[in-house]
Every structure is written in C-alpha cells, then in structure tokens.
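note to self: the first set is below, dont mix up w the second
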Amino acid sequence: MTLFGRERRAKERYRPLATVVFTVRSGKDPGRVSSPVTGEGQDVSSTGMSVITPRLAPDGIHIMYDTLMTYRNRIDATIFPEGKPPIRVQGTAIWFRAAEAQPGFYIFGMRFDEETPSLEELRFSSRKDPG
C-alpha cells in the first residue's frame, strides 16, 4: 500500500494466507473483550499484517476505537500458519476498509506491539505469488 506514491512499510511483506483468530479488547474498559473472530491473515511481516474479517466490531467493540474515538482498542491474535505452530501477536489496527474482493467483508491493517521474528521464517517456506 502506498500513500501518494511512497511506500510506507518498513519491513518486506509476503503473501502467505493463514487463518487468524482475534479478539478485540476495549481501550476504555480493558476488562471488556469481544468473542473470538476467525479471519484470514495476509501481507504478513515481522511488524504487522492485514486481516480479512467478516466482522469489524465484534460484540460492539470496534477494531480501532471506542464509540467516541477517544480510546485505542487492542487486538490479540493467534496466527495459524499451515504446518507450523500457532503464533500469538498483540497490537492495534491502524487502518480498515471494505474488502473489495469479498463483498460484506472488511480488511484491516494491524501493527504488532513487538517485532515477531518467527514470522520472518514463514516468508521463505510459505511464499505465494500475489496473482
């Protein structure tokens, strides 16, 4: 993704598709956590990924912010790469939009709180052509 023709990503992304199960934790009330949502992870790097999801606000908790947009909500996710152990990540959604390829679905970009080097090794074993 580019903004005005300039690439903003600091780390190379690759296109393995993996099942992702995530919950959203309220930034205003951290004890309030959504039920799990199953999506599809793509464009993964050690610092973030995008997720295609059927729900943008599970249990009424929006992936990015509370209803007044004054608190940043948190995402806890588990990535299930094919043939590899699950990988847990935490972070925040930094953008979202409707998923053009799947009507009724959404896509959001997630930035991880910490770099996850174990995702880098997937780049070589799971690389798929973007087309």
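second set (the one i keep forgetting abt)
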Amino acid sequence: MTAAPAHHDRCTAGVARIESCLDELDAALASGDADRIENHAQNLQRALSEGLAVFQQAAPNAALTPDLRQRLQAAQSRSQSQLQAVHRVLASTGRALGALFPQDGNDTYGDLGQSPAARALGKAYR
C-alpha cells in the first residue's frame, strides 16, 4: 500500500519540475536571449524525459489523480504555446534574413549598373 503514495509523490514532483521548467522557458523566451532559451529548453526536455519515466513506472500501480491529469494537460498546452511562439520567431527571423540577403540573384542596385550612363561612369573611374 505504501507503493502507491510513493509513486504519487514522484509523479507530483515530476509535474512540478515540468511546470518549473516551463516557467523558466517562458521567461527566457520573453528575454530573447538565445543561450538562455537553449539552456531552458534543454532543461525542459530533460524534465519531460524524466517525468515520462516516472509516469511509466507508476502506471501499473496507480492511476493519475484528476489534479495531476489536469496539471499535465495544462503543461501540454503551455508547451504547445511555447512551440508555436518559437515557430513564429523563426519565421519572422527567416523573413528578416530573406529581406537582408535576397536569394533571387538580383544585385543590390538592380539594372542600374547596366545602363549606358553607369558604364560610362565606370570607365571614367578606371
């Protein structure tokens, strides 16, 4: 009978760690610090892996309480929101880089360098 409370305590601790990592990642995303984001994303990944192992061990012995189930669903929603935020930032960064470094092969000055006046000026400065 003591096994079920022990599993419940480990599950509760696992969920609390995941929630804490989500809070830290939220703060890191708000700061915009790439190194901090990477560090907290890795911490969250570890917490999720460890939590999964704890839940798999507890599954045969005890069902999740409604409170833990609700907290896990909230953590899942938060992690999906964070993932969407990261995708939006990546898309925005990609657009900004695309504007700064166009890939369509156009020169910065376009056809201006090919006009007769531009060729004449080019010859004058040689």
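remember for set 2: The mean pLDDT is 81.
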